[in-house]
Amino acid sequence: MTDQNTQHPLAMLDSTRAFIAAPRRMLIDGEWRESETGETIDVINPADASVLCRVPGASERDVDLAVRAARRAFDDSAWSRMKPTDRERLLLRAADAIEAHAREFAELEALDNGKSAAVAEALDVSMAAQCFRYMAGWATKIEGSTVDASIPYSPSNAYFGYTRKEAVGVVGAIIPWNFPLLMAAWKLAPALAAGCTVVLKPAEDTPLSALRLGELLQETGFPAGVVNIITGYGRTAGAALAKHPGLDKIAFTGSTPTGKAIGHAALDNMTRMSLELGGKSPVIVLPDVDIERAAEGVANAIFFNSGQVCTAGSRVYVHEKVFDRVMERVAAIADSMKLGPGLDPSTQIGPLVSARQLDRVLGYIDAGHAEGARAIAGGARGDGTGFFVKPTVLVDTDHSMRVVREEIFGPVLVAMRFSDTDAVVKQANDTPYGLGASIWSNDLAQVHKLIPRIKAGTVWVNCHSLLDNAVPFGGFKQSGFGRELGRAALDMYTETKSVLINHA
Ligand code: NAP
Ligand code: MG
Fold this sequence. Notes:
Pfam families: Aldedh (PF00171). The chain is about 40% helix and about 20% strand.
């Protein structure tokens, strides 16, 4: 292991340093294990392309061991006999433990993903803790209903009917690299609140915070096998998990093509699934806006998390009356943003997660230029060995271009003008995706007319990508199906059992 002091001059906690210095293993049945093949995966710091540490590369057999452990824990362990109040208590303790290690988690996210540690602490980590706390409350509120049956062909008997909501069983969770800890929380917290057991596979690019969370959940008192965390490649470990017949449910967040592959594999076993997929979310700016406020909103909607957000506002439609003024300000904001490593408190935009993502995003910028788009900000790689892309604003774009049609997942905004509401609705919906959208205006009548016409799982007004644990989140169209967060999340982790009792 190289000397972390020389490799990472930016300040970090001793506990963070110790975590990345020790050999990392994966969590199967309450034990920390290597891959049975001995394979490892390098964990890369995207700010300077250095190797932070190594994690096991799980094989199909490791996945099988983890699923079997989760099955045992679901069927016949202390977990299955645990009362809802005890699950609630464990989830509340988990929330406290995440908060108690907030800075450490934020630093791990900064090192592994590239994002700002300050932002991660305020947002990713606090939202993850809150997710556990919010879902803890649901453990004691999972309810069925009662039915007075009136079965016409059995008139002499009396029937009492009721429904039970039962934990769906063993859950396979596959998550992406853009919000590693938060996505782990979104899967684990509702699954555990419902009484499920879980095999979680973090993204190969960002496994560290999930492994740290696994340690804390063990300390918190979750029985062995309830939470298993396997690190590995999507094409091997992820695919083996998705097609495993021992799963009752698969919960996935990531790209639409991978989501479809997982969906096909799951359907063969009739595994329940929820798919949280990609997006190309429109931002609609009406002519009554305050220019400065709208420009800040537009810039934040795309550049937050270096554009690596499933709901990133990656297409902006600005009314022609204000287009030039709004976009001039957005470009100025983009030009002013400070690129840097996530551990530097002055960083406003971190590197992309990986060399692969860097190539992909630069490839889209080149494609945009080749198709006639013009960059009014950015348009190139940032300085240094890290995977930096300058915040980029493309104009002279239209719906025939790949940069307008496809999810880029980087700090690249395409801007178009519109003149009337019907036209902008048509443009906003001209996409296979339907995850999010935002409308910027104080014209209530216009806003209310637009909301029902936009095909998206969430519509924000005068804000963008804001999330709350109590508000359901998910996609229309090819952005997936199922809803996470809120009461809706519990439906994803429970089955309904109907009971009819003849008491004549
Ligand atoms: P991805 O392929 O969808 O990866 C998401 C997760 O699925 C990762 O854990 C990945 O493992 C795993 N995976 C990959 N192939 C799999 C398979 N065949 N079976 C089961 N699991 C599999 O996303 P990506 O390749 O990292 O990024 C590609 C593009 O996806 C991005 O450029 C972006 O457009 C989009 N994306 C969207 C979201 C979102 O939140 N909507 C998030 C991330 C990426 P590995 O990490 O080992 O590949
Ligand atoms: Mg990494």
